[in-house]
Automatic annotation (TrEMBL):
Residues 28-43 have a biased composition (Basic and acidic residues). It holds the Pfam family Bmp. This is BMP family ABC transporter substrate-binding protein. Keywords: Cell membrane, Lipoprotein, Membrane, Signal. Residues 20-65 are annotated as: Disordered. It comes from the Bacteria. Its main location: membrane. Gene3D superfamilies: 3.40.50.2300.
Length: 371
C-alpha cells in the first residue's frame, strides 16, 4: 500500500490534531460502488482523460494567482513507507516537475477533517487532495464560501457518494484482496503451511471485508487453510501489532499479512526473523532496499491512482462530478506480484488476474462462496 520540492517548489508538512490511520482506501460498501454522476475506467496510471462532469476554469491555477498550490490531507503518517506515503510522493513528484507548492496535513482525526479542509482553502490552494475516504466528511467544505473555485480529489476506494464538487478514484476490495489471498495460497502450498495470518487496526467493516476476500483467495489454492485474524485497534501501533504477530507465529502461521500503516515494517521484521513470508498493504516493495523483505506486493496505492488525476489537472482536463474506476487485470494498477516466484506460481497468478479482468472469474461470487 519509492518516494519523492526542489528549486521553486515548496513543501510544508502540518501535523494533524490526533493520530488515526487506516491502511486502505476501501472503506465503504465492498460490494457496491457509490452512486456517481459519470464513471470512467482508467486506462493508464499516468495517461488518459476524463469525460462528463464539469471542467473548472483555469486549471491548474484555478484561482489565477500565478502559482499552483495543492493541499494534501491524509488520515495516516505520510512517512509510513507505504500506502499513505505513496499519495504524498505523487504530489511531490508533480510539484517538483512543475514548480507547484505542496501543503501536507497528515495524521488527521476524521472528526477534524472539515476544519482542516477549511484551513487549506483559506491558504488559497488550487486543489484539496484527500488521500483516503476516512476523511470524506472534508468534502462538505467544498460548497462553503472560503472554498469557492477549489478543485477537489479523493482517493475514494470503494466509493464516496458522488457530488458535482469533486472527482474520485475507485478500486475494489474483492479484486485486489482475492488475488492477494491467491498469491498467499501459492506460497502456503509451497511451504506446506495451513495457516495464514492477517493483522490490521480497528475492527471496521472494510477490514472485515478485506479479510473475507483474502481468505477466499487463499482457500482457492489451499481449501483447508485457516486464516488467523487480529484487530489491534490501531494501524500504527507497533507494540500491539508485534504482539499480534508473535501470537500468530506461535500458532504456526506460515504467511502473514500486516494490513497496517506505520506498523507494517515492524511486523514484517518479526516475520523475516522467523522465515515467514509477508505481503505489502498497497505498494510494490519487492527488492526493497530498506532491509525489510516482502514475498508478495499487493499494489493498490492511492498515489498510483492520483497520478492520473494530476496529469489531467496539469493539462486542464480534470473534471469534477465524475469518478474513475481501476480494475485488476484491466488497468496497470491495482496488481499483485510475487517477489520471488517458484515454478509456475507466476503463471498461475497471471492467469487468475486475467480471469478476473476478463470477467471469466466473478470475484464477488467467489468471495461470497458462490463459485
Amino acid at each position: 500500500m519509492k518516494r519523492m520540492l526542489r528549486a521553486v517548489a515548496g513543501l510544508v508538512v502540518v501535523p494533524g490534531l490526533m493520530l488515526t490511520a487506516c491502511g486502505d482506501p476501501q472503506t465503504d460498501d465492498p460490494k457496491k460502488p457509490a452512486t456517481k454522476a459519470t464513471t470512467e475506467k482508467g486506462t493508464d496510471a499516468t495517461t488518459g482523460t476524463q469525460a462528463g462532469g464539469t471542467l473548472p476554469k483555469g486549471e491548474p491555477d484555478v484561482n489565477g494567482d500565478g502559482k499552483v498550490v495543492i493541499g494534501v490531507m491524509s488520515p495516516g503518517d505520510t512517512k509510513d513507507k507505504g500506502y499513505y506515503q505513496s499519495f504524498v510522493d505523487e504530489s511531490q513528484k508533480y510539484a517538483d516537475e512543475n514548480g507547484w507548492k505542496l501543503t501536507i496535513v497528515d495524521k488527521i482525526n476524521p472528526a477534524a477533517a472539515v476544519q482542516q479542509a477549511r484551513n487549506l482553502c483559506r491558504q488559497r490552494v488550487d486543489m484539496v487532495a484527500i488521500g483516503a475516504s476516512e476523511l470524506k466528511d472534508a468534502l462538505s467544505a467544498s460548497t462553503e464560501p472560503q472554498c469557492k473555485g477549489v478543485t477537489w480529489y479523493i482517493s475514494g476506494g470503494m466509493g464516496v457518494k458522488q457530488t458535482p464538487e469533486f472527482t474520485q478514484s475507485l478500486d475494489f476490495i474483492n479484486e485486489s484482496l482475492y488475488a492477494a489471498g491467491y498469491a498467499a495460497g501459492l506460497v502456503l502450498k509451497d511451504n506446506g503451511g495451513k495457516k495464514a495470518g492477517y493483522i490490521t487496526g480497528p475492527d471496521l467493516d472494510f477490514a472485515r471485508a478485506v479479510a473475507k476476500a483474502f481468505k477466499a483467495g487463499i482457500k482457492a489454492v489451499v481449501p483447508d487453510a485457516e486464516l488467523v485474524e487480529n484487530y489491534t485497534g490501531d494501524f500504527n501501533d507497533s507494540g500491539k501489532a508485534n504482539e499480534a504477530a508473535n501470537a500468530q507465529l506461535s500458532q504456526g502461521v506460515k504467511v502473514i499479512y500486516p494490513y497496517l500503516g506505520g506498523a507494517t515494517d515492524s511486523v514484517t521484521r518479526i516475520a523475516n526473523k522467523k522465515g515467514v513470508p509477508a505481503l505489502t498493504p498497497g505498494t510494490d516493495r519487492c527488492g526493497d532496499a530498506s532491509g525489510v523483505k516482502y514475498a508478495i506486493s499487493v499494489v493498490f496505492s492511492p498515489g498510483a491512482y492520483f497520478a492520473g488525476a494530476l496529469k489531467d489537472f496539469k493539462a486542464g482536463t480534470l473534471r469534477m462530478g465524475v469518478a474513475r474506476e481501476w480494475h485488476l487485470g484491466k488497468d496497470p494498477v491495482p496488481y499483485v506480484k510475487l517477489c520471488d516466484p517458484k515454478g509456475d506460481q507466476e503463471a498461475q497468478l497471471k492467469k487468475l488476474t486475467e480471469d478476473i479482468g476478463s470477467g471469466k472469474l466473478n470475484v464477488d461470487d467467489a468471495v461470497a462462496g458462490k463459485q
